[in-house]
Amino acid sequence: MARQSISLTKPNDEWLKTQVDKEEYSSKSELVNDLIRQARKQQVQIDWIRAKIEKAEDSGFTNNTKEQILAQSKSLLNG
Questions:
Q1: How many domains is the chain partitioned into structurally?
Q2: pTM for the full model?
């Protein structure tokens, strides 16, 4: 595992220490790695949502009524 040296603001350092003191994590390093994993997972979800939104925007608008859209969606779900 790569070693890094980072500087933390006092409030962030105190928060990390509190989490370790509460035995939520065994070390600050473990906590920081967990936070990074969570951020990476969240970024994957954000990218997926963004791609879906862009695809929807690129597909244009419809003149169908909400009832027609609902019926079409149900037929797609039911195969």
A1: 1
A2: 0.66
